[in-house]
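INFO  loader      accepted 1 record
INFO  loader      residues=240
INFO  predictor   begin
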Amino acid sequence: MASAKGGFTKDHGAIIRGDSTHKKIALVFTGDEFAEGGNIIAQTLKKEKVKASFFLTGNFYRNPVFKNIIRQLKKDGHYLGSHSDKHLLYCDWDKRDSLLVSKEQFTTDLEQSYRELNELGIRKADATYFLPPYEWFNDSITAWTKELGLQLINFTPGTRSHADYTFPGPSNYQSSAFIYQSIIDYEKNHPAGLNGFILLLHIGTDPRRTDKFYNRLAGLIAFLKDKNYTFQTVKALLHK
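INFO  predictor   done
INFO  writer      dumping C-alpha cells
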C-alpha cells in the first residue's frame, strides 16, 4: 500500500514518487539482456539536454557488447545504478510476502552488482538508490536493502510506460501509441500531473517487439517540456 511521507510516496518502504508539489520528473531506464535502444536514447537525451537514470544489471555491465553505450552514458553524466546482478525474482507474483531468495542470496547478488559498478569507477556511495529486478519486491527486500546502506526505489504507478518491454502475442502487450497516451492522460487527469514521477522505460527490448517506444522519446520529452517539467536524475529528485 502506498503512503506519503516527507513529500515522497512509498510502497512497502520503497520510494515510488518524489515531491508531488513540484514539476520535476525523473526518466529511468532499466536493462538486463537488451540494449539496442541505447544509442538512440543517449543521442536524444544529449540533444534535449536531459539527464536520466540508468539501472542496469551486472549481466548488462559485464556484457562486452554493451561497453560502448555504458561509457557514453557515464561520459554524458547520467546516473548509473544497480538493477541487481543476475536479475533475480525476489518474491512470488501472487503471494508477495513469499520470498524466493534467502537474505544471503540477495546480499551476495546485490554486492556483486556493486563490484561491477566499482569497475566503472562508480562508488557505492554515489549510487545508493537501487531499483529491484522485475520492479517487484516486498518489505523484507526493502529492509535488507536498507541494511546494506541503500534506498530501494521503484517506478511511479499510473501510466503504462513500464510496459514498453512487451511484445505481440502475450495478453500483456501494449503498443507504443497506447503507452504514450497513458502518460498524456495521467498528466491531464490528475491535479498533481506527473510531478515527482519516476517514469520507467527500458534501454532495450525483445526483438519480437518492433514497435520500440524509445523512438518516441524525443516526442515525450518535448511534451513534458511544453508542460514545464524539469528533468532530474533520481539522485537529484529524491535528495533531501
